[in-house]
Amino acid sequence: PDGIEEVVCLDMISVPGGDEFSAIGDYDGFRHVAVDEIGIQHTPNMGTTGAIAYCPQNPDVMVRIADTQNDVAGGFYSKDGGTTWTEMKNCSFGGKAAITQIDEDTYRIFKSGKDDGNVSYTDDFGATWSTVSGIDSAYGSKTTYLLVEPEKPNVVYAYATYFNSSWHYSKTEPEFEDAHYTLYVSTDYGKKFTGTDIAMYDQCDSAGRIAYLGEDNLILAAGWYGLYNVTDGGTKVTDKNVFYCKTVGYGAPEKAGEVNTLYMYGKPKETDPEGIYRSQDGGTTWVCINSDKLYGGTGNGNFIVGDMNEFGTMYMSTVGCGIVYGK
């Protein structure tokens, strides 16, 4: 569109059986029915939107969160798949979101802090909020990302990035306690979490998004510290021997019954070109699908989202160039 200086996408989801939804700086974000059609902008508008999420047990229930302070609202929720949105009266801005279903009529919406490890939840669409227990909101931490098990709504994952920005005043090199990733798991619908350390944090862009291979089977990125497979309720961590993974996402498998397809931005081996790679075996082997037209990389959103309804289609955030897609 003429007159738009840049488009910075900050979050995106692909709803199984539904459409794609984006959260965009300045322009709220859109419902994307098709890649060759102009999206339907979210209304009411609240400007820079940093998070959008759906409930895996009932995708009609959705939430979107403002990334910065505005005069409209901190967030909105929807019960009709993003067609209409209702204000959450007491929602703070910033962070990422997730939703799980407690019972037939109750949905728990999670929201993390923008520049800390805090995670809170509401069971009444924002009227009241509680802070989860077990996640250490250490000083200087990055935003925590969240994911809910689709078939087990009581299981909630939180991937936290800890960073002590003052470590250099007393040390020549950061230690694990200063910069690291930790995966937290809850089995009581997200009230209490326990953590397992994953890897060092490289102090570059936080690679906090969680890729879902299948039940109890996660893939976690760690930048220059590689890529990890986590199973056994979050307790077993396996290094996948990837040289560099800036971000990792997941989409529909090629055949029913296979693990979800992985897409990553990075380099499987040190000698590989930087680009976008696809894996159909849980991150053991990778195929380069693009090393050209990278649009500056994944930018502020730092995501690759696989299409949950069409194998081989993926969407990537960019440095101000909107969302690019591959098929």
Molecular structure report:
The chain has 327 residues and is mainly beta. It has no helices and 27 strands. It has strands spanning 9-14, 20-24, 30-32, 40-41, 49-55, 58-66, 75-78, 86-87, 97-103, 106-112, 119-122, 130-131, 145-148, 156-163, 179-186, 194-200, 210-214, 217-221, 227-231, 236-239, 244-251, 261-267, 275-279, 287-290, 304-306, 314-317, 323-326. The chain has a four-stranded antiparallel sheet with strand order 1-2-3-4, with no helix packed on it. A four-stranded antiparallel sheet has the order 5-6-7-8, with no helix packed on it. The protein has a four-stranded antiparallel sheet with strand order 9-10-11-12, with no helix packed on it. The protein is globular and about 50 Å long. The model has no long low-confidence stretch (mean pLDDT 95).
List the helices and strands and how they pair.
Blueprint: E1 9-14, E2 20-24, E3 30-32, E4 40-41, E5 49-55, E6 58-66, E7 75-78, E8 86-87, E9 97-103, E10 106-112, E11 119-122, E12 130-131, E13 145-148, E14 156-163, E15 179-186, E16 194-200, E17 210-214, E18 217-221, E19 227-231, E20 236-239, E21 244-251, E22 261-267, E23 275-279, E24 287-290, E25 304-306, E26 314-317, E27 323-326
Antiparallel strand pairs: 1-2, 2-3, 3-4, 5-6, 6-7, 7-8, 9-10, 10-11, 11-12, 13-14, 14-15, 15-16, 17-18, 18-19, 19-20, 21-22, 22-23, 23-24, 25-26, 26-27
